[in-house]
Specification:
Elements: H1 4-28, E1 32-40, E2 46-54, H2 59-68, H3 70-80, E3 90-95, H4 98-110
Parallel strand pairs: 2-3
Antiparallel strand pairs: 1-2
Helix pairs in contact: 1-3
Length: about 110
């Protein structure tokens, strides 16, 4: 069970990262990256960020690009939340493939 403080921090990080990704993917065209969930450790040292990527075929390519620019993304996030958080957690990015899984289940049920 997460505390109220951790939940607020998760929502704050999710909102700010969503805005950062929205601005960056607008330049790419044809790609949509959204932050589906953020899970922060109790000591606020690590934040696990799950990204939903459309189209899903470009997911591995985009996640590699995000992981290679992890420090820049963390710095930009820190600039946005510097008045709310004392320390910005380390970011770990993962692909959220729940939509692909749901689509696969729907296909199986139709058969």
């Amino acid at each position: 069970m997460e505390s109220t403080r951790i939940q607020k921090i998760n929502r704050l990080i999710q909102k700010e990262l969503s805005e950062l990704f929205r601005l960056e993917t607008a330049k790419m065209g044809g790609v949509l990256v959204s932050v589906s969930s953020v899970r922060t450790s109790p000591d606020l040292s690590i934040a696990r960020v799950h990204l939903s990527i459309f189209p899903s075929e470009r997911g591995p390519e985009i996640i590699e690009n995000v992981k290679s620019n992890e420090k820049t993304i963390r710095y930009n996030l820190a600039q946005k939340v510097r008045y709310q958080l004392r320390r910005t957690p380390e970011l770990a990015f993962y692909i959220d493939d729940s939509l692909d899984y749901i689509e696969h289940i729907d296909e199986l049920l139709k058969k």
